[in-house]
Amino acid sequence: MTPPMVDPLRDAAVCRTLYLFAQGIDLREWDTLRSVLADEVTIDYTSYRGGEPVVMAAQDWIGKARRRFATMTATQHSMTNPRVDGTGEQVTCRMYVEAHHVAVIDGTEESCRIGGEYVDELHLIEGDWLITTLRLDVRWFQGNRAVLDLPTN
Amino acid sequence: MSDRLEDRAAIEQQMFTYARATDWLEPENHRLVFADDCVFASPHSGDLHGPDAVVEWMSRVLQPFEATQHLIGNITITFTGDDDADAVSYVQAWHRYRDAEKPDMILWGEYHDRWARIDGTWRIRERRVKEAGFQPPREGGVLNPRRAKG
């Protein structure tokens, strides 16, 4: 076995896309979130939501995300340990994530942390690395999981 | 800095390979990271010499855990030669026990490394684990890595 090849400039650009993804969610910067997604995105959260992966227009998925995260007072997606594999204009990026979610339930602040890995596919589209597949492989939960499933408006 | 960009990226990737090898219980991938003459040292392991000892110890101490996750960050790399570097990185290591009665354990600490490029691949020649704190709190370890350096 040999270590994976690295392409520092490409890998930095790919990682920047994923860090902006986290920033878009955590700071509720929806334009930033939109800027890192391709027009159509495959969403695969089946590791903790079940079901099947779905293909959605980016704007529609952002609408769902806005409603979901509106139920929470704060989130923070800490992302690290990136590994970028691929050649040409398509790569897969594996990135550790620890996502901290905070919400008020019945007047009490509750939190839930999710640990796992994003296994995302990105394509080079008009000079930018954009997310075309968003997959979250959950490894663990800690805290009150009700925080993740509060009713949306 | 830019003239060593590829070397920095290669060392960082090896740091992440170490984390994944630990978290996915892939002992063979630990061998990718450590030099044949490596030393691995933590307050719990003592000084381990060579990849075989590292893999054996890792496999044993990780047995009680159902899952772990090592988040690596704040990486600083200082090149001390064409094929040598020192590095410090932060680690937050989350551990879930197979015994559901035991609470999750989190270690915050630092890796203090010496790296060497051997046959074209950057490998750890020495890794010393400095423990900054635990949750839940417990005895042992070094409370503050900087304090330990004097």
Structure description:
The complex is a heterodimer of chains A (153) and B (150). Chain A is built from four helices and six strands, in the order ααβαβαββββ. The termini of chain A are far apart. In chain A, a hairpin with a 2-residue loop joins strand 5 (108-125) and strand 6. Chain A has a single domain, classed as Nuclear Transport Factor 2, Chain: A (Roll), CATH 3.10.450.50. Chain A is of the alpha+beta class and 153 residues long. In chain A, 27% of the residues lie in helices and 50% in strands. Chain B has 150 residues and is of the alpha+beta class. Chain B has one domain: Nuclear Transport Factor 2, Chain: A (Roll). Chain B has four helices and six strands; from the N terminus they run ααββαββββα. Chain B has a six-stranded mixed β-sheet with strand order 2-1-6-5-4-3. In chain B, a hairpin with a 2-residue loop joins strand 3 (65-81) and strand 4. In chain B, helix 2 (27-33) packs across helix 3 (51-61). Chain A binds chain B through residues 1-4, 6, 8-9, 11, 78, 80-83, 96, 98, 115-116, 139-140, 142, and chain B through 5-6, 8-10, 13-17, 19-20, 23, 28-29, 31-32, 67, 69-73, 92, 94, 96, 104, 121-122.
Rough shape of chain A?
A: globular
Q: State the domain count of chain B.
A: 1
Overall pLDDT of chain A:
94
Distance linking N and C termini of chain B: 29 Å
**What is the CATH topology assignment of chain A?**
Nuclear Transport Factor 2, Chain: A
SSE topology string of chain B: HHEEHEEEEH
The appropriate CATH architecture of chain A is Roll
Number of strands of chain A: 6
Radius of gyration over C-alpha positions of chain B, nearest whole angstrom: 15 Å
The assigned structural class of chain A equals: alpha+beta
Residue windows where pLDDT falls under 50 for at least 5 positions of chain A? none
- CATH class call of chain A: Alpha Beta
The counted number of beta strands of chain B is 6
Number of helices of chain B: 4
Give the overall form of chain B: globular
H/E element sequence of chain A: HHEHEHEEEE
